[in-house]
């Protein structure tokens, strides 16, 4: 029973580290956003609004 608990806690810790890493990368990407991302978003929004007409 102890081995199962150890495996469960290890998996939770590993996924926690992965989650924190993803959050850190997401914040970095938001700060260092390129103009191309904005252009893509503008194009997507304009295409979406044109489809509604």
Detailed description of the structure:
The protein is built from two helices and no strands. The chain has about 55 residues and is mainly α. The chain is elongated. The mean pLDDT is about 75.
Q: What key phrases describe this protein's structure?
A:
mainly alpha
Radius of gyration over all CA atoms, rounded: 20 Å
Characterize the main sheet: none
Q: How many angstroms does the end-to-end distance come to?
A: 63 Å
Let me know the average pLDDT.
77
Strand tally is: 0
Strand content: under 5%
What percent of the residues sit in helical stretches (DSSP H or I)?
Answer: over 70%
Shape: elongated
Structural class: mainly alpha
Annotation field: number of helices = 2
| Low-confidence runs of at least 5 consecutive residues | none
